Amino acid sequence: MAEADMTxxxxxxxxxxxxxxxxxxxxxxxxxxxxxxxxxxxxxxxL
Length: 47
Description:
Elements: H1 3-8, H2 15-39
């Protein structure tokens, strides 16, 4: 799709839509942080 076609269909986001996107983004960041924590080896203090 051409660049001109994509910009023609853009519109401003409402505050509710922007808030929803921010909420979803925070949720995804939290999920990835939890998975990273689970996958990282936990230090046991033993060698």
